[in-house]
Amino acid sequence: MEKEGRIMGLDFGRKTVGVAVSDPLKITAQGIEIIRRKSENKLRRTLARIEEFIKEYNVTEIVLGFPKNMNATVGERGEKSLQFQEMLERRTGLDVVMWDERLTTVAAKKTMAEAKIPKKDRKDYVDEIAAVFILQGYLDLLKNR
């Protein structure tokens, strides 16, 4: 039996977290925000903002982008993502699913180019769009199970 509520997708970067949520039927992903922080290790406000979204959107599960190297090994960014997963689970009590995000940033940049978003503005959207791709991939997997 599936839990009622939405799923949140997160693209965790050095100084930003792209945030997306599913619709109530868990079919589509929509980007909602890019959380920005002054330094990589300042996460308290980031976690508090994620908790606000969990309440606002009735989130019951989180999908976190897992940046693996192209050869499937886990590098420094992957390790940081695993640490963030632990923090999220401890703080929210929700399951946090790790989702292979290889090429999501590439796909996000391609989508912005096709949408004719000026190059100078793309960095402002890339993390949110990557979060949408992460979440949509997971939603598609659930739908096809």
Low-confidence stretches: none
User: What is the rounded Rg?
Assistant: 14 Å
How many domains comprise the coordinates?
1
Strand percentage: 15-25%
Strand order within the widest sheet? 3-2-1-4-5
CATH architecture: 2-Layer Sandwich
Outline the biggest β-sheet: 5 strands, mixed
- Give me the CATH fold name: Nucleotidyltransferase, domain 5
CATH class: Alpha Beta
Instruction: Tell me the overall shape.
Output: globular
Which descriptors would you attach to this protein?
145 residues; 5-stranded mixed sheet; 5 helices; 45% helix; alpha/beta; Nucleotidyltransferase, domain 5; globular; 5 strands
Topology:
Blueprint: E1 6-12, E2 16-22, E3 29-36, H1 44-57, E4 59-66, H2 76-92, E5 95-100, H3 104-114, H4 119-122, H5 126-144
Parallel strand pairs: 1-4, 4-5
Antiparallel strand pairs: 1-2, 2-3
Helix pairs in contact: 3-5
Report on the structure:
This protein has 145 residues and is of the alpha/beta class. The chain has one domain: Nucleotidyltransferase, domain 5 (2-Layer Sandwich). Helix content is 45%, strand content 25%. It has five helices and five strands. The protein has a five-stranded mixed β-sheet with strand order 3-2-1-4-5, with helices on both faces. A hairpin with a 6-residue loop joins strand 2 and strand 3. It is globular. The relative contact order is 0.23.
